[in-house]
Specification:
Blueprint (H helix, E strand, L loop, with lengths): L8 H9 L17 H6 L2 H6 L7 H17 L6
Length: 78
Amino acid sequence: MLKESERTKDFYIKNYNSGRCLCGDYKPTGLSFCRDCFKSLPDEIKDGLKVEIEKEEYRFSWNKAYEHFINIGRVGID
């Protein structure tokens, strides 16, 4: 996993279009995370992921989601 400072717009787009969630489970393309990961997020992070992917709010929320997944043990630190 790239460090937050190294993540470009292309990184977020590739993740969004991927068929795999960070946790390794299947996710439909066009979603940020699988259903179980998304459901585990606090509402304010979920809301931030609903904006256009090009917006800074999306990238901020994605990074907060990643931190949340590490904290609850859904993903490991690379």
